[in-house]
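Question: I have long wanted to understand how a fold can be written as tokens. Here is the record:
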Amino acid sequence: MSVEEPSPRTPPLTQPLSPPGGALRRLRSRAPLVQNITNFVAMNPAANILLAVGASPAMVHAREEAGEFAAIADALTINIGTLSPAWLEGMLVAAEAAVDHSKPWVLDPVAAGATTLRRQAASQLLELAPTLVRGNASEVLALGGAADNGSTAGRGVDAADPVAAAEYAAVSLAQRQGCVVAVTGEIDFITDGRRAAHVANGHALMPQVTALGCALTGVCGAFLAVTDDAFEATVAALAYYGLAGERAARGADGPGSFMLCFIDALAGLSADAVDKDARIAPATLPSAPAEGGADADLEVRAP
């Protein structure tokens, strides 16, 4: 795939986003059923995190039932972390069913540029119109074609590229696919190809705990299930998740205790607190790939 050139530079959002706490209130009142086809490492923490958020998780991946279940779920998430041909079959039929039944679905293209199998799987899944693509910078660059010419530095599931380096590719991908793309990292970048925002909530302990990124994909699915605007749903999900990480870090001694504190923080964080402490800022759509792409160049203020 090649990176398409985005439309000319677009100014930051002129219309304010809805307060992110509203999406959290709806989620907790509706308890959406979220089908997760995720990796072996993430299944247990992702299920516990979705329960803490207020959603109902289901881990259903077999080809024989994945599509049938996607038709009754409120949202579907697909994570290619522990990929196999059999699992890919289930992912494809589930995504097809989600689209056929107008259910939002999220693609988490774990290590999309690492192997031929992953590149092919990501390409097949992209053809099935995900509502949201959520990945780290290296994964989004790979989906945009950067992996084909060696311009992404991803190592397996880890990002070795800064978020800002993938913003241009994210906008191109969003415009080409007609979806939302979220590049997560120290400062998240979210775009639907017309609008863009940065979310600065989070804590340095979060990437030190396995599966927190994969679980975030499920949380995004839960927010999408209760919010018509996929861009706003994604911004709200990332702000809430990052803020819970900040709260959890206050009581954690390290990565192990952080996980326990994080689940408690997700359950205890109020919608009013999310509205008050979310650090969301409008972003300009980039007109060219970033040179160097350092996140340190971004200054994000509370709305």
